[in-house]
Amino acid sequence: MPRGGKREGAGRPQGTGKYGEATKAVRLPIRIADEILAALAKEPEEIELGTNVESIFRPERTTKLRLPLYLNPVAAGFPAHTEDYVDDNIDLNRHLVKHPDATFLVRVVGESMKDAGIHPNDMLIVDRSIEVTNGQVVIAVVNGELTVKRIRKHRDKLWLMPENKDFKPIEIDENTDLHIWGVVTNVIHAL
């Protein structure tokens, strides 16, 4: 009888585990794995971070707040006729957090991403389960410092790009210690 490998009917049926959905294994270098896991487990006021990210939060998934979504869209140009019809209610947790167990929130400090609409004190929703692709805004650890930047790959070179002309891009080379924590999916800021 052969041993090892996937066997028909073996293992737990998908979606029945602790998280109630498919999971993704994430590999971290041992030298930073404990630090990252400890940071995610801490209360927000206990977290000390570097550049551009002030604090990390886990989204509260038990709260259900359904807000009305009006049928008519809001015109950003000329005013449009309005009607007082509610189309549906939406739960912002379900709308903004696609992968709850792989999502965390961070608060921003600094202005290196202001031209991308990311300002000081904004909250970023970050999804660790999304595969990083060129042009996405990511949370990265660069030489031990946490930052938010747009990732660019151009001519076999990797860059972390600010969205503010007063800041310089960070070139990632063989001497740079880089770890991507996740992809920014949404920005929440007050007006």
TrEMBL record:
<dbReference type="GO" id="GO:0016787">
    <property type="term" value="F:hydrolase activity"/>
</dbReference>
<keyword id="KW-0378">Hydrolase</keyword>
<dbReference type="InterPro" id="IPR039418">
    <property type="entry name" value="LexA-like"/>
</dbReference>
<feature type="compositionally biased region" description="Basic and acidic residues">
    <location>
        <begin position="1"/>
        <end position="10"/>
    </location>
</feature>
<keyword id="KW-0068">Autocatalytic cleavage</keyword>
<keyword id="KW-0742">SOS response</keyword>
<comment type="similarity">
    <text>Belongs to the peptidase S24 family.</text>
</comment>
<dbReference type="GO" id="GO:0006355">
    <property type="term" value="P:regulation of DNA-templated transcription"/>
</dbReference>
<feature type="domain" description="Peptidase S24/S26A/S26B/S26C">
    <location>
        <begin position="68"/>
        <end position="184"/>
    </location>
</feature>
<dbReference type="GO" id="GO:0003677">
    <property type="term" value="F:DNA binding"/>
</dbReference>
<dbReference type="Pfam" id="PF00717">
    <property type="entry name" value="Peptidase_S24"/>
</dbReference>
<dbReference type="InterPro" id="IPR006197">
    <property type="entry name" value="Peptidase_S24_LexA"/>
</dbReference>
<feature type="region of interest" description="Disordered">
    <location>
        <begin position="1"/>
        <end position="20"/>
    </location>
</feature>
<dbReference type="GO" id="GO:0009432">
    <property type="term" value="P:SOS response"/>
</dbReference>
<dbReference type="InterPro" id="IPR050077">
    <property type="entry name" value="LexA_repressor"/>
</dbReference>
<keyword id="KW-0227">DNA damage</keyword>
<dbReference type="InterPro" id="IPR036286">
    <property type="entry name" value="LexA/Signal_pep-like_sf"/>
</dbReference>
<keyword id="KW-0234">DNA repair</keyword>
<dbReference type="GO" id="GO:0006281">
    <property type="term" value="P:DNA repair"/>
</dbReference>
<dbReference type="InterPro" id="IPR015927">
    <property type="entry name" value="Peptidase_S24_S26A/B/C"/>
</dbReference>
<protein>
    <submittedName>
        <fullName>DNA polymerase V</fullName>
    </submittedName>
</protein>
